[in-house]
Amino acid sequence: MQHADKHTLIIGAGLTGLATAHILRDQDIPATVLDASDRVAWNWRQRHPALRLNIHRKFAALPGKPAPRSDGAYLKRDTLIQHLEDYAYDLRDCIEAGVIVSGIERTPNGWRVVAGSRSFEAPHVVVATGRDRTPHIPAWRGLERFEGDVIHAANVGKISQFDGKKVLVVGAGNSGGDVLNHLARNNPKDVRISVRYGPAIVPQRVFGFPLHRAANLFAAMPLWIVDPAFALTQRLFFGDLKKYGLTSHSMGGGTRLATDGTAFAIDDGFVAAIKSGRFKVVGEITEFWTDRVSFDCFCSFDPDVVICATGYKTALEPLLGGFDVLNDTGIPRYPMGEPVPGLPGLWFNGFRPEFQGYFHSAAKGARRIAAGILEDTRTVSRVQASPQRKLAA
User: Fold this and answer.
1) Pick from 59, 26, 60, 32: which is nearest to 44 by CA?
2) What is the C-alpha separation between 315 and 330, in angstroms, rounded?
3) Among the three residues 279, 308, 337, which one is the final residue of a domain in this structure?
């Protein structure tokens, strides 16, 4: 193992870990990337085959590698996987696959990463395992007695398998909207959507223009302008959705993205299905029974399958719970390359969503980390040289 003063360990070989490794390499910072999987883009391979990114290809570029143009504005799942595989191939000499990290510890000279019987040490560690590491299904009352299928949106598979079935989709945010868009293009027998609050919804295209192409503009605008602008866009394109059961959250869409990471729902057909009556909105789940689900709107539904678009957990508490660096939902408090006070050499990247998407934020965080490591190296060099200058004097 390398022991250079600025050597870095990166945990996670997803898009954020790979982008970080590339930028560090460009700055002559040696790095080793540790990943639990033996295949690149493992989590993307679990998603349904018809999935497309909701971000424009301009913002799906990786540092030093633009996104493919073959799919038009929005990359298909398999194109994205190939995009990441090609990128990882260029970094293959620094990736160690099949390494399941079980602990992170401080040492006198930096950090130790424990993986079973193996350990790795370096002055710097970057945690790049992502916000969407572990699919989360809430512990609803009675869930264990329900006899239908319950799956997370991350593992939904081919949407056509739900043709002729009664489907309950829980959540209508970014991932729920994606599932609903695909269901709208297929033939399920009956679809109900359980929501606590209606999502902030935007059309995928505005008069043919891919809306996400303007993400830099949205990011530059203050939230007090962004929130009403998107609310107005939703009203102009979709009308009053409250009468269909989609109430508004007290926070605007931009504010929710900035504060708790809740992304906009992108409409590509599901709103029309709601307005036509094909899909029906119900309230929040109160209880599961053997053959049905009840809601706080005093109604129930007997689905064949429940698709949970209920978000993800970082699963970082076992690794980092003792360092007081996570908020109460498990998200790092310094999520995108900011120095962690009191814990020099510990970095996080890929845990804050932005309007431009995770590819953009991964590169942004990686550049911060590279600058921080170089500054730390310069500081160490000055400290080591200081006694020699005094002796010479």
Assistant:
1) 60
2) 7
3) 308
- Start-to-end Cα distance in the chain: 38
Number of structural domains (the chain) is 2
Q: Are 8 and 125 in contact (CB under 8 A)?
A: yes
User: Considering only CA atoms, which of 363, 271, 366, 268 is closest in space to residue 53?
Assistant: 268
Asked if residues 309 and 173 have their Cβ atoms less than 8 Å apart, the reply is: yes
Give the model confidence (pLDDT) of 129-184 as tens digits.
Answer: 999 999 999 999 999 999 999 999 999 999 999 999 999 999 999 999 999 999 99
- Is residue 2 included in any domain, yes or no? no
Domain that holds residue 368: 8-133+314-392
| DSSP assignments along 206-256, one per residue | ETTEEGGGGHHHHHHS-HHHHHHHHHHHHHHHH---GGGT-PBPSS-HHHH
Question: Quick one: pLDDT band at residue 385, thresholds 50, 70, 90?
Answer: low
Question: Which residue type does 295 have?
Answer: F
Residue 3 lies in a domain: no
Size (the chain), residues:
393
Q: Summarize pLDDT for 362-373 with one digit per residue, the tens.
A: 999 999 999 999
Residue 23 included in any domain: yes
Virtual CA dihedral for 254, 260, 266, 271, nearest 10 degrees? -100
* CA trace torsion 35, 40, 43, 48 (10° rounding): -170
If asked whether residues 59 and 91 sit together in one domain, one would say: yes
CATH of residue 90's domain is 3.50.50.60
